[in-house]
Design a protein that fits this description.
alpha+beta, Jelly Rolls, 12 strands
């Protein structure tokens, strides 16, 4: 209402001289295509006020948006000072370290890869460099993702296998079966497990003839959904 009144007053003060040929019930107002247009009072006044109000509304909207942006900048700067940037970096994250593994399940005895079922978690992480924060949960040897997003996942493992002292060959049933290490995801809604990233290494002859040591590091960016469960698998848990 205030904008309309201001627009009408401005109209009266700035209106050019109306031609003498204007009929009763008509009015002359500035138009969008020319300096002055005469016609029906109701139609011209409605169109003029509509244009003027739209212009004023856009201006008020821009000013309000600018105020909001300035306010957000001030608030974010204050919060950054208080929380030392952690306020904006509260993203789900976890890092676990392994522990002694239980005996193999019967269902895993002939499996190509076996999941690592035990990790230090909860209070056990206090004595390690591991952590779990911002919604990540631990369940049955798996990490459960709390929200959809792009995650950086990685796993680093050291493997040791005994060798035959006389030849230095690995003491395994099938030397042609490689050493595998990978990260998998499972979602109960999909019902299928999916390999996200993996590493495959061949067996080698031991230089000291007693044992071999291997290092395997895998990493990748993965699009994960809330509820996805991440697990690490190896070809031989005894390594």
């Amino acid at each position: 209402v205030v904008v309309c009144i201001i627009a009408v007053l401005a109209l009266v003060w700035t209106m050019p001289e109306i031609p003498k040929t204007v009929k009763t019930g008509e009015i002359c107002l500035p138009s969008e295509i020319g300096p002055l247009k005469c016609g029906s009072t109701a139609d011209l006044l409605h169109g003029y006020l509509e244009r003027e109000i739209a212009t004023k509304y856009d201006e008020v909207k821009r000013q309000d948006q600018k105020k909001q942006e300035n306010h957000l900048k001030k608030v974010s700067a204050r919060l950054m000072n208080i929380y030392d940037k952690s306020f904006w970096e509260m993203k789900p994250a976890a890092k676990l370290t392994g522990k002694e593994q239980p005996d193999l399940r019967k269902t895993d005895s002939n499996a190509d890869m076996v999941p690592i079922r035990e990790w230090c978690n909860g209070r056990e992480l206090y004595d390690t460099k591991g952590f779990m924060r911002y919604g990540i949960r631990y369940r049955n040897g798996r990490l459960v993702v709390p929200v959809d997003g792009t995650y950086f996942i990685y796993s680093n493992l050291d493997f040791f296998e005994s060798c035959n002292p006389s030849s230095g060959l690995p003491d395994v049933k099938d030397i042609n079966k490689p050493i595998k290490h990978g990260i998998f995801k499972f979602n109960i809604l999909e019902g299928e497990e999916e390999e996200l990233v993996s590493n495959v290494q061949p067996h080698t002859i031991s230089t000291n003839r007693y044992y071999n040591s291997y290092n395997s590091y895998v990493s990748s960016l993965a699009e994960l959904k809330a509820g996805d469960e991440l697990s690490v698998k190896v070809s031989n848990i005894s390594y």
